[in-house]
Amino acid sequence: MLHLFEKKALIISFICAHLPVSEENKCNLAEIRNEGAPASIPQKQKTSKAERRAIQEAQRAAKAAAKEAGKPARATSVDGPAASKQAKPAKTAQKKDVPQAASTVASEKKVTERLSERERKLDAPHPRMQFDDVHKVEKAKKRAVVNQSEARNRVELFRHLPQYVHGTQLPDLESKFFQLEPMHPSVYKVGLQYLSGEVSGGNGRCIAMLLSFREAIKDYTTPPNKTLNRDLTAKISSYVSFLIECRPLSISMGNAIRFLKNRIAKLPHTLSESEAKASLQSDIDRFINEKIVLADKAIVSHAITKVRDNDVLLTYGSSSVVEMILDHAHELGRNFRVIVVDSRPKLEGQGLLRRLVAKGINCTYTHINAISYIMHEVTRVFLGASSILSNGTVYSRVGTASVAMVAHAFGVPVLVCCEAYKFHERVQLDSICANELGDPDVILKVPGRAEDQLKNWAENANLQLLNLTYDATPHDYVSMIITDYGMLPPTSVPVIVREYRKEQLWI
After folding, report:
1. Spatial CA neighbour of 195 closest among 234, 256, 244, 130
2. Residues 320, 253: Cα–Cα separation, whole Å
């Protein structure tokens, strides 16, 4: 059974074959043929022999132009409409008329964009080694200077962090003093101070490291057949690896190392060795002076406006810049009281308490477990920070997040004092992915109690002791961040990081 459309086509063909048709009727019959045909089938337009020859010549010209430009030629469809075919040769003709300078400019632009992207990736911080990878740990042990034995009762949640038996590294390192030939004595001394805890605090550790590098650069001589830039960078990298074995680097120390390596890489080759060394030593002195010493003074000048008479200021632990603020407020004759909140195992607040009381400042001392009982008396909270991340998270000594959370619940403003060189573009939402684990044995030492309550705790496989060093405070609990750039909300931290990069300070 024939379809209606097929019947219609047969009738029209019969009429065209047997009856004389005028020109007007031919057009009408053509319209009838097209009526009812599927819309998806395009009707081809007939082209003359001259038009087809012109299209072929245009295609040959386009292929030749593409070969000269070094690009693959794109074949054009012969079955397309004549108007579109005639438009394509015009486009190729326009492409031929474009000067070659425009193409070179575009290619140079692409190259510069690629280079900037490559430099950005190189400037990104190197990911920390995951200590739950057995193969990488074994390779690191072969290169290690300090022999460290892994703890037996490792905390499973923090297996990606180094967990070694504390107390065995220092004697082993002291016995290897004369065996470490490439290690400079000043760097070796700083490593021992890190291990023993003699040097602590973000600013103190960073200054000690930079001063040791300054002494190493002063005594440095370029080996024959080597350049100063590459060889000195390799030396600094070996020193950094040694310091990391003694104690993991803080974020501020990583920023300072990046600054120094960038200055070494950008030294002009026209400088002599003595001039290059003098330039690097002055850069280190300038970094310490501007980014730490003068930055703390600028923070004090901004924060002092927030201290008024009859204020009750609360601080946690011992922060050097917060202590400077309290000292300066006392020198100006402000009448205020300080509540020092402390926590085990380090009890850093006791040293701050002694220094403040010796200067005549009215103080109250309490432990962190009583923070909710005394917060109703507090008017402002001043806290220090080890680093501030780009999402506004405050990375500081463990317990800071608890103090800020309680203050936020009571509606007390939380002011965090931090130098700009401690800012980092990293984003961190918790204190698990990146942290530092302290000695678990110090948790057992409770003043006034017997120390042998858990003396043989390591023999119990079901017991693990965790001593975290840092925690992460969300920006929701922080009212204001006081830096050497001024006072700003935590949401403006990415702007500071961006401005710091624009100044080419290599954070």
Report:
1. 244
2. 17
Q: Which of 232, 409, 380, 390 is nearest to 312 (CA)?
A: 380
Helical ranges in 197-306 per DSSP H:
202-218, 228-246, 251-265, 273-288, 294-303
The CA distance from 417 to 408, in Å, is: 17
**Higher per-residue pLDDT: 39 or 324:** 324
Burial (0-12, 13-18, 19+ Cβ within 10 Å), 35: exposed
pLDDT in tens, 185-237: 899 889 888 888 888 888 999 999 999 999 999 999 999 988 999 999 999 99
Amino acid at 217: I
Q: Rounded to 5 degrees, what are φ and ψ at 481?
A: -115, 125
Question: If phi over 0 gives left and psi between -120 and 50 gives alpha, with beta otherwise, what is residue 315?
Answer: beta
Spatial separation of the C-alpha atoms in residues 121 and 115, rounded to whole Å: 10
Answer whether 383's CB lies under 8 Å from 400's CB. Answer: yes
Dist CA 372 CA 408 (whole Å): 11
Is the pLDDT assigned to residue 169 strictly greater than 80? Answer: no
Cα–Cα distance measured from residue 435 to residue 184, given in angstroms and rounded to the nearest whole number: 28
pTM comes to: 0.69
In this predicted structure, the answer to whether residue 418 has a pLDDT above a threshold of 90 is yes
Lowest pLDDT segment from 68-77, 146-155, 281-290: 68-77
Tell me if 306 sits within 8 A of 379, measured CB to CB. Answer: no
Q: pLDDT value at position 17?
A: 52
Q: What's the confidence (pLDDT) of residue 281?
A: 95
How high is the pLDDT of residue 136? 59
**Angle (nearest 5°) at CA 383 between 379 and 385:** 160
Q: Is the pLDDT of residue 182 over 50?
A: yes
C-alpha of 404 from chain center: 24
Which tokens belong to 417?
């004092």
Cβ–Cβ < 8 Å for 340, 349: yes
Cβ(273)–Cβ(222) below 8 Å:
yes
Q: String of b and e for 250-260 (b: at least 16 CB within 10 Å)?
A: bbbbbbbbebb
Residue 302 tokens read as 């901004």
Residue with token string 């003359």: 48
The whole-number pLDDT of residue 500 equals 65
Distance between CA atoms of 166 and 345, rounded to whole angstroms? Answer: 15
Q: How far is CA 86 from CA 53, 398, 400, in A?
A: 11, 75, 74
Q: How many helices (H) and strands (E) does the chain have?
A: 18, 11
What's the mean pLDDT in 379-384? 96
